[in-house]
Fold these 2 entries.
Entry 1:
Amino acid sequence: MASALRLMPSTATRLRFRPRLSFSTAASLFSPPSKAVLYDQHGPPDQVLRVEDVPPVELGERGVCVKMLAAPINPSDINRVQGVYPVRPPLPAAVAGYEGVAQVHAVGPAVTRPLSPGDWVIPSPPSFGTWQTYIVKPEDVWHKVRDDVPVEYAATVTVNPLTALRMLQDFVKLKPGDAVVQNGSTSIVGQCVIQLAKVQGIRTINIIRDRPGSEEAKEKLKQLGADEVFTKSQLDVKNVKSLLGALPEPALGFNCVGGNAASLILKLLRQGGTMVTYGGMSKKPVTVSTSSFIFKDLSLRGFWLQKWMNSDKSEECRTMIDYLLGLVHEGKLKYEMELTPFSEFNMALDKALGKHGSQPKQVLRF
């Protein structure tokens, strides 16, 4: 790329090693000026966020400058801006955004990782501040990923698909033919659970809300590989397990809703089953009957991806990201998203906030 920069050794030494330039030489390498989504205080995102020019940043010896290609607007991003998420960037002048994909623009002279201008990289584990056009961070933040998948998938591979994969692997030892049950099945995590389970030969029982278009939603999930899809009202029967037909009682359930939707999962779980809660979209508590504990011996667990990624799992995390992007490349993992130019950030934010009704996940395209 004509715009990509890299400090290079002379022709005579290029093939053998990269010289360690002095810091005074490295200090002359800066990122281009950038545009960023900033906020100085917590509050409603459409009130506290602003797009602003930010000055160039010095790379230093081991810094890597990347040009962002795409970054999603996740619910957790909104929660950070609101100030209700457990982990938040420091204020003021915090840059919003947490995951995304970028292209290497320039590297510092002492960088040892095999990163070159033009490579696609993601922050792994994710890192604050992806809603900006250029970013400078230390080399160990960046993980090189394949560039033969759609940019929106590389931008979103970490938070939702990785959550689905970890939950399928971390709580119950499943074998082909086993079943899992989940609510929030039309979410991206829900869609990923269906497809990743299918790859492993695991059956899925899926619960969705009663709403206009629910039959269409059922058909979309079945096209992804769902074995059964029920609306909540369909499960409002005395013998709910009779609806499963030939499917086995699920050993594992995933709850991202809470309230009655969580109770339905508990009813469907087999003896000794486990329900994992990873979200609470209804903002209603999970309530469990005494008999569920005593007579069914059910287990309730929680999952927070950020905690898992921060527990010395960085290399394992990167291996799984490569696996997931491989599935994307093979056409075995897909979900609906909408790319929106960064210049139309306010429109993308309004859609993510639900001001335009139900919308696909918004992904900013830089």
Entry 2:
Amino acid sequence: MVRCGSVWFRKYGNFIDNLRLFTRGGSGGMGYPRLGGEGGKGGDVWVVAHKKMTLKQLKDKHPQKRFVAGEGANSRVNALKGSRGKDCEIPVPVGISVTDENGKIIGELNKEKDRILVAEGGLGGKLLTNFLPLKGQKRVIHLDLKLIADIGLVGFPNAGKSSLLSQVSHAKPAIADYAFTTLQPELGKIVYNDFRQISVADLPGLIEGAHMNKGMGHKFLKHIERTRQLLFVVDISGFQLSSQTQYRTAFETIILLTKELELYKEELQTKPALLAVNKMDLPGAQDMFHVLMNQLQNPKDFLHLFKKNMIPERTVEFQHIIPISAITGEGIEELKNYIRKSLDEHANQENGAYHKKQLLNLQISNTISYNEPPPKNGVTSPR
């Protein structure tokens, strides 16, 4: 953990975001036909969410990636009812989606101690099964981690997301002058002086067509679904992926990023968003920033410059727009403060909305109870 200005920042390395596992419920125990004894049921296999667990830890601890529950005990003379087999629990991080081999969702684990049954144990031998035990369920499952972070960094490659993260953290992620510097998501936490922690996900850069799984495509977009807020990071001088692709201004970059999010999942556009305009140390950056601000304040006046299929249904309204330079450190402290402020504002709004809903439900239930007619055979008080 390193000190950076007024905050501490804890940096986490690259991590595994999906695993394929073999699971099998335990076989049931043998019945005892002569005395009518029943064998014990085989144990079940459960996937259980734990806050401090990672998929990398799970893979390192269980390299075979096989999870088999215990067998039920056989019925015997001194114990006609066989004991149940021991359950097997697979510890996973919070934010896991569990699917079967066909891609069907079995369930999701969104908070600590959430659990999903993935392979059921076989029944013990009993009269219905001719006292023969049944085998446990076999199932191959996929664990897919969709990050849960406070802030997700959104931007095209080379927008300076990794440089921004290194400014905040004083860490040294690999940064190079080519597309897709960040090939895997990285998680970090800003820890303020009062011990408040804000998690930040640095995600692979988007490209046009990401919603169709081009580039890092869905690998990026699936993680952004579970961040509380988005931090758009754009290069003030614009973006060009290669000499074969079209140059995009900073404003065009923002519109295209918004369109990619919309095409993948419209709900992503409803997330609160901030905008960090990076590379303000470049010559002429201030003039370009004034032009960008004018465009963002009146976006509809400039949408005619785009092809129809590139225009999003709705443009993003940023909570705060912060000019920064990840190279010189300009605006970094302001950015940290705005991130915290925005999260606090929306937490208060959510709490207020929740309390209003609870109050409304209470009022409705009271109204219903007052207006309910007395039962037909009920006793009424005399007038």
